[in-house]
């Protein structure tokens, strides 16, 4: 063959057996990829796309009204007449060490009580508006916590672990179910001016992919930092987004599947969508006078939490899966619901700031048909002691406190569990934080034992190795 001669290519016929033999692995891989997708073995392209629950759900989303600091159960939802009879006397029971060991005498509730609704559940005069909805609530008087210190108790309530590093409730919910909103985060925290002890780690995604961590909406005109468009035109911004998308995709193709890269891509895409969705959502100037009055937007003391509650309703209406409203900063209150002194004055101010907005939220959800599919949870990280700390405060009490749930498949008009005559220790139907988490997930259609994530060689879950569904409060 000379240099000018062209090579001769022979076409060798391929037998059917040879073709099947050469492609066998490819066919298997194709079948496996289809089955893996059906069985949930592969991560979806969008980590927040809606996912099917384990079984039919009663609730579609959660609003957690977090009363940071520890509201007193014996001054709100768990009346104890014995405190009146023994006011000013030493408590007649053995008590554990309290947080600060400044133990005074028995301190009665400063407020009156009223039985409300068809259920006749008693609620103190601190909540004249909220108590009108007791027939929608399951009041759990037998909550317990593993910690009497704010930071570790905050972690425990939110993550099921007393130290930082674990995913929070909202992260587990969005990991399990995704989100039904394309233009908003699946997990939103609404700031009222006070971030709880423990900081934003309380709302972190922990070992779950970063896409499931909370997005903080601040109070005020601009809900989110760095959301405003920086480029002079939308066309220029779109070009930059296309370039960034291509670079991220190249990195993903080069390095393979990587949670951090995928989360970054998803976050950039979501941030772009949020630039138009968030300002529209948080602009309340067009709300009717009736809505503003319902939530207390035009009253100084209720305006902050009223705004949070209204935004929470709007967020779940748009498909956001988990919304947490943080206790607001209230003028005249030194430290959240954490009244080691001046309890009568400061508990009253905290209740005044939140009572009307909470009632407005429940009424609004109910009128729109959303309460049936929205689980509303109210409570703090622990309760308070029946004896005074000093002259007029109460210390931390993790041994028996109250939380309530409403809507979303809860049996309304229910009072569950009990504390002793002083309101100190649970004596009937003890409920742990793990049980609260298991029940919440159950109402969302998820089995807390099946909602797991492989980390460090172990299938981790929100309830760890604990938890039971509190069946008696389910409708």
Observed structural traits:
475 residues; alpha/beta; Alkaline Phosphatase, subunit A; eight-stranded mixed β-sheet; two-stranded antiparallel sheet; 10 helices; 18 strands; 32% helix
Write up what this structure looks like.
The chain has 475 residues and is an alpha/beta fold. It has one domain (57-473): 3-Layer(aba) Sandwich (Alkaline Phosphatase, subunit A). It is 32% helix and 15% strand. It has 10 helices and 18 strands. It has helices at 16-38, 81-85, 150-159, 169-177, 234-255, 259-282, 289-295, 300-317, 343-367, 433-443, and strands at residues 61-66, 103-106, 113-116, 121-124, 137-143, 187-190, 215-217, 322-326, 374-379, 383-384, 387-389, 396-397, 401-406, 414-416, 418-419, 426-428, 453-455, 458-460. The chain has an 8-stranded mixed β-sheet, with helices on both faces. Strands 2-11 form a two-stranded antiparallel ribbon. A hairpin with a 4-residue loop joins β3 (113-116) and β4. α5 runs antiparallel to α6 and α8 packs parallel to α9 (343-367). The radius of gyration is 27 Å and the shape is globular. The chain starts with 15 loop residues before the first helix and ends in a 15-residue tail after the last strand. Mean pLDDT is 88; it is low at 34-44.
